[in-house]
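For the sake of clarity, the format in which proteins appear in this thesis is described at this point. Each number in the token line that follows is a code from a learned vocabulary of backbone shapes. One such record is shown here in full, so that the layout can be seen directly:
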Amino acid sequence: MSTLFILLPEAVTMASGDDKASILARLADVFAQVYELDRDLVLERVTERERLGSTGFGRHVAIPHARIPGLTRPVAAVIRLDRPVDFDAADGMPVDLVFGLLSPDGAGATHLQALAAISRMMRDERMHAALVAASGTDVIYSLLSNVIDRDAA
């Protein structure tokens, strides 16, 4: 799909959450189930990163991210929340889209490039509106795939 990260269809989900901690736990569940990663390690790493500063970058989007040993390429997961949740975002707005990214431990530039690509994609207001309005995870995945494939070309 992308030269920068892998996003499998099964890693796109819709969920509810009461707070940031429950959303990060759900994100760790998705990464564990889809990419066969250690759930506790993923949760520990994304929570650790979140303590450095919120990954809610604004415009109702959060991009929790971390580096995980054993990965060979960055992997992604997307959660569309059924209702916005406070994520301590930079703009103070609640989050309704969570785009998680995990990269190999030593992936400095690759990690930053993948984050930048996700950030560019999520800054597009039309894309955000389409993702929030999508009728299911297959539509969300299709929308994301089209943008990622287009930008990779």
Q: What stands out?
A: Helices lie at 20-35, 39-52, 108-123, 125-133, 137-152. The longest helix spans residues 20-35.
